[in-house]
Write a structure and sequence with these properties.
Layout: H1 4-37, H2 40-47, H3 54-73, H4 77-87, H5 95-108, H6 112-125, H7 130-142, H8 146-159, H9 164-188, H10 197-200, H11 205-214, E1 219-221, E2 224-226, H12 230-239, E3 272-275, E4 280-283, H13 298-325, H14 328-345, E5 365-369, H15 375-383, E6 388-392, H16 398-410, E7 418-421, E8 445-450, H17 464-474, E9 476-483, E10 486-495, E11 522-524, E12 536-537, E13 542-548, E14 558-565, E15 570-584, E16 587-590, E17 613-624, E18 629-637, E19 640-647, H18 661-666, H19 670-692, E20 704-707, H20 713-725, H21 729-735, E21 739-742, H22 746-758, E22 765-768, E23 784-787, H23 799-810, E24 817-819, E25 822-832, E26 855-856, H24 858-863, E27 867-869, E28 874-880, E29 890-894, E30 900-902, E31 904-912, E32 919-922, E33 939-941, E34 948-952, E35 959-961, E36 967-973, E37 978-981, E38 987-989, E39 995-997, H25 1004-1028, H26 1031-1046, H27 1058-1066
């Protein structure tokens, strides 16, 4: 039996052996690491190779080289690096080849910086060997050093001019280098209005020297040190193994309290900035100037310029829609001008009521601020042929002035009758008639007409108060007249909430109500039940502000507290407001909603679908009971009105998500929901019958794919239908969700998941926030695809491309159904805009050059005389989505039913939701008889609002036809839109590769419009790439967008349509 002392010695010996073994393991790891990194001196010292004989080292080196070559051929690049490191230990010949092989290994492993270093060593060993330069050039290419890569390839060609690899890669590097230089040059000369110079501006010499001295990650090519931008430095650090985590995704939050900060001077900016030191988003602590001053922010200036140009592009579309409908403002403004002229000229024979103006007569000098449709201006010019009339376009876009000039010429207005001043209103002043500034006033005016275009639905949204003050202070005589004379802002408390399980779909949509907010008020038409959600008033209409435009100066801010008593129980979440305007003593415009209008109201109800009501969502909803008193504070600033509930107090919540308003309307489309529900139930019945014939253990789990899911309404209906068809809780727990919903907008998906939770369907529906084309192939294949990717023209939402991708990625080739199963496009020829030739006694047909909209309500157009049907209905294209059978291009005969000029083809869809074609969903116009009356005997569903798609023809492509004389037209389609082309039309190819008809000759004003539209689209792309997709600039972009959306026209240097600014801000939350 051993003694205790012996046991202790034995134990100590064992510990010593373990320590020695651990030390050996650590040493081997260090030796391996040094070999991979190519640190030869440290490797020799660590492995104690200096004790070995030269012969032994030479033999080991040669053997390592051979093993390295074998490993390289097997693509075992990590192992090959170790062997090549061993080959470099001895005095082996052709070391430059070993360095080259190590560079190749590192290149294959994606370690381009290390590969460049090894290639440089190969060059130093043998400067006459061309392959070293090839290796260095390839590594530099991957690091995006294209100029340096080209230099390496060219040096290699100096050594070996016939080397094909060097020739090929030198050409590639040269092309990329040239393209890069061209892009930089283009970018340099197109950033006058942008904020992106900081991304492309080269580093100064001082920064380069500082980086050269302090940057441990610099790259050496020959004897040069190459600096790079911040983005390139981040890429380089990642290549060198510096694992710097990316910043977390920027999650914008909007504090509703910002709406009620009436004066932001001295406040801290809510500007999220990414701090790389603390690795978090922080709020900028710099004091901000006034919210209406953009001079301190390039981002704000770029966004404001884009929004102004976007508003100018939409200008003509808005007026064309109002002319087609003959909306109330189109009729009221010329009538008011006639009344104003009558006041100046005195009463007609037999009229005693009207008195002649005591100071002004037919020699008064007129100033029109804004030209709008030009109808008020033309009215004045016709009734005052010798009058002194000045028209200020109030916009920067030249096409607006040129269009107005063309319309005046079309109506026989002489050039001398109207002086045109094309500049923003705030730039108007009285100048020397003989001076250089001929585009301005040369004397004060007696009568000022503010066009309807200067007012928005909330009256002040376009900054009209400041314009009136500027005009009165600098431009008018003492006894001037102004039209309109004044306006009152009226309001009413509303409840606008989503269904709580009481809708046609039976779903609870309370989650959607959290998205009812905005930095600015929204505009709409409460009288249009189809394009607006249901609402109800919770109190009486009240007048909150009264503006008298005849006063010498208007206050640019004001406040008033008022209260109302709840007329019934409800949830107060919106204050709707509008204006009642007195244009002259005899002409008024009252936008009070029809439901709230007093029976004794003197003015007639407005006509047309134009947006005339503003809606401000409250910071938090207030639950009220009948008889409760609610206190509200109303206030206004230079370009907006605000409402805030002061009692009872409610807790505000920061807003983090929003949805497009059309999605809110979509969940209320009862006919669409019913068509999908019936088709899904019918398809599931067939699928379940097929499953019953298969042994239970061999059955695949039921899977439904839903494309274009939006808020998940049809997804939840499909999940419920699957439960009713026999899918139980156990099957869902075993195989996962029954429905896979695909929707690309991430914030919408976030909201949809909340809706799933509210309806207890979290386990049944899985939401995927991704483009279906980017998804990997799914192991569990779907038996049913449901798609809502249908627009009024059938193809506009990409149903062909995305459905095909889903079929490949998520379904078996011939073992699935599609809802809808088939689709047919029908069409008819129409003539639009003929009535504009006699619009209130004037020829306004020049507006027809701007019929570019892709959607139309043809029933309304036929009713108001804007459109005239010139042919019978004809079938255009027929698609079988389930069998994946697509039509080919072909020609169609059109049979005219009347003489006229075809300037549009209106088309719509008829989709068979089921395989048998018994359930139909169609946007077939009510006013157009069906081609086959058998359609009326089927289960027919029409979505609301009913809209159709349209293909407009311009210029030489407008086809004159005779009744009964058929003509041909060629039809085809792209991935997302049908095409209609007259035979013999010259086709051109766009940059995308798509072929289109060559644009016809256009009038000058339309060419200026197209130029503005193209520039605006380019600016939008730059904003998206700069503000939306760069993590370091996203916070700045959001802060600038918020700043503008809070008061879009607070800065008088811009004229922005407020809904555009509001939606641009909302994009950060979609």
């Amino acid at each position: 039996m051993p003694s205790a002392e012996q046991d202790g010695e034995s134990s100590g010996s064992s510990d010593s052996e373990e320590e020695e073994q651990e030390s050996l393991d650590d040493r081997m790891k260090r030796i391996t690491k040094l070999g991979k990194e190519g640190k030869m001196e440290e490797l020799v010292k660590e492995a104690k190779l200096s004790d070995c004989s030269p012969e032994m080292l030479a033999f080991a080196s040669q053997k390592s080289k051979e093993l390295g070559n074998i490993a390289f051929q097997k693509k075992e690049y990590e192992q090959a690096l170790e062997y090549y490191a061993g080959a470099l230990l001895g005095d082996v010949p052709e070391k430059h080849k070993i360095y080259s092989n190590r560079s190749a290994c590192l290149f294959q492993l994606g370690k381009y910086t290390d590969a460049l270093v090894e290639a440089t060593k190969a060059i130093k060993c043998d400067r006459s060997w061309s392959k070293g330069y090839f290796r260095a050039g390839r590594a530099a290419m991957e690091m995006e050093y294209y100029q340096e890569a080209l230099e390496m390839f060219e040096k290699g060609l100096d050594r070996d001019p016939s080397n094909k690899d060097l020739i090929t890669w030198a050409e590639k590097a040269r092309k990329i280098r040239n393209q890069q230089q061209q892009d930089k040059l283009v970018k340099k000369h197109t950033t006058d209005y942008s904020k992106f110079e900081s991304l492309t501006k080269a580093q100064t010499e001082e920064e380069e020297q500082e980086e050269m001295a302090n940057d441990p990650n610099r790259v050496i090519l020959g004897d040069k040190y190459y600096s790079s931008s911040k983005m390139e430095q981040r890429q380089l650090k990642a290549m060198l193994g510096y694992q710097e985590p990316p910043p977390p995704p920027f999650e914008p939050e909007f504090s509703m309290d910002m709406v009620y900060r009436h004066d932001a001077r001295g406040m801290k900016t809510q500007n999220p900035v990414w701090d790389p030191t603390s690795r978090e988003w922080r709020v900028d602590a710099k004091p901000a100037p006034s919210r209406v001053d953009y001079s301190d922010s390039q981002q704000a200036q770029a966004i404001a310029l884009f929004l102004e140009r976007q508003s100018d592009v939409q200008y003509v579309d808005n007026w064309l829609a109002m002319l087609d409908e003959d909306s109330t403002p189109v009729e009221v403004w010329p009538r008011a001008v006639r009344d104003l002229i009558a006041q100046m000229l005195g009463p007609k024979d037999g009229e005693e009521k009207r008195k002649k103006h005591s100071m002004l007569g037919d020699d008064a000098r007129w100033l029109f601020l804004g030209v709008g449709t030009t109808l008020p201006l033309l009215t004045a010019a016709r009734y005052l042929p010798k009058g002194d009339i000045i028209a200020n376009t109030a916009h920067r876009a030249f096409y607006i002035a040129d269009l107005a000039l063309t319309i005046a010429k079309d109506n026989g207005i002489q050039k001398e009758q109207i002086k045109w001043i094309h500049r923003p209103t705030q730039d108007l002043s009285i100048v020397d008639p003989d001076g250089e500034d001929i585009n301005n006033l040369t004397g004060k005016v007696d009568c000022v007409v503010l066009d309807y275009e200067l007012f928005d639905a909330g009256l002040l949204g376009k900054g009209v108060l400041a314009k009136i003050n500027h005009t009165k202070k600098k431009l008018v005589t003492a006894n001037h007249l102004i039209m309109p004379m004044g306006a009152s802002v009226m309001c009413a408390p509303l409840e606008v909430i989503s269904n709580r399980g009481n809708g046609a779909d039976g779903l609870d949509w309370r989650a959607v109500d959290d998205t009812r907010w905005g930095a600015f008020y929204e505009v709409g038409n409460l009288d249009d039940t189809e394009s607006h959600e249901p609402w109800r008033a919770l109190g009486e209409v009240q007048e909150v502000f009264d503006f008298d435009f005849t006063e010498s100066e208007l206050k640019l801010s004001g406040q008033r507290d008022f209260e109302f008593v709840a007329a019934e129980d409800g949830v107060l979440n919106c204050i709707s407001f509008w204006y009642r305007m007195d244009l002259t003593p005899n002409v008024a415009l009252d936008h009070t909603p029809a439901e709230l209008r007093s029976p004794s109201a003197s003015s007639t109800a407005p006509v047309g679908a134009y947006a005339r009501h503003a809606m401000q969502w409250l910071a938090a909803p207030v639950e009220v009971c009948k008889g409760d008193t609610v206190c509200v504070r109303a206030s206004y600033s230079r370009s907006r009105v605000r409402f805030e509930v002061t009692s009872p107090e409610v807790t505000m919540k920061d807003k983090k998500v929003s949805v497009p308003r059309w999605l809110m309307l979509r969940i209320r489309e009862e006919e669409r929901v019913e068509a999908y529900r019936k088709a899904i139930e019918k398809a599931l019945d067939k699928i379940m019958q097929q499953r019953e014939a298969i042994p239970k253990l061999d059955r695949h789990p039921l899977r439904i794919v839903h494309l274009g899911a939006g808020l998940g309404q049809i997804s939840m209906i499909a999940a419920k239908a699957a439960r009713e068809a026999g899918v139980d809780e156990r099957e869902v727990e075993t195989h996962g969700c029954t429905v896979v919903a695909v929707e690309q907008m991430p914030k919408v998906v976030k909201l949809a998941r909340r809706a799933l939770k509210d309806n207890d369907l979290e386990q049944d529906v899985f939401f995927c926030s991704e483009d279906v084309r980017k998804l990997p192939s799914q192991p569990t294949r779907a038996q049913l695809i449901v798609t809502e990717l249908i627009d009024p023209g059938l193809l506009g939402e990409g149903i062909l491309v995305l459905l095909n991708a889903a079929r490949i990625k998520m379904c078996n080739a011939f073992e699935h159904q599609v809802v809808p199963s088939r689709g047919t496009i029908w069409a008819a020829a129409f003539e639009f805009g003929e009535k504009l030739k006699t619009c209130h006694g004037f020829d306004m047909s020049s507006f027809n050059h701007y019929r570019t909209n892709l959607m139309v309500d043809i029933d309304t157009a036929l009713e108001n005389g804007t459109a005239r049907q010139l042919s019978t209905v004809f079938q255009v294209l027929k698609f079988d989505f389930e069998k994946n059978e697509m039509p080919s291009s072909h020609s169609i005969k059109i049979h005219p039913t009347d003489d006229g000029k075809i300037n549009a083809i209106v088309f719509w869809y008829e989709v068979a939701m089921d395989q048998e074609g018994d359930i139909l969903l169609t946007n077939w116009p009510e006013a157009v008889p069906p081609a086959d009356f058998a359609m009326m005997e089927k289960d027919l569903h029409k979505p609301r609002p009913l809209r159709q798609a349209v293909c407009n023809f311009q210029g030489d492509y407008i086809k004159e036809v005779e009744k009964g004389v058929p003509i041909e037209i060629d039809v085809g389609y792209t991935q997302a839109w049908p095409q209609f082309v007259w035979p013999g039309t010259e086709m051109v190819q766009k940059e995308s590769g798509e072929r289109m008809a060559k644009p016809p000759p256009m009038p000058r004003h339309r060419l200026h419009f197209e130029k503005l539209k193209t520039e605006t689209e380019d600016l939008e792309k730059k904003l998206q790439s700069g503000l939306m997709f760069d993590e370091e600039m996203l916070g700045d972009g959001y802060a600038a967008a918020e700043r503008i959306a809070l008061e879009p026209n607070g800065n008088p240097n811009y004229l922005i349509d407020p809904p555009n600014a509001n939606y641009f801000h909302m994009m950060f939350f979609l």
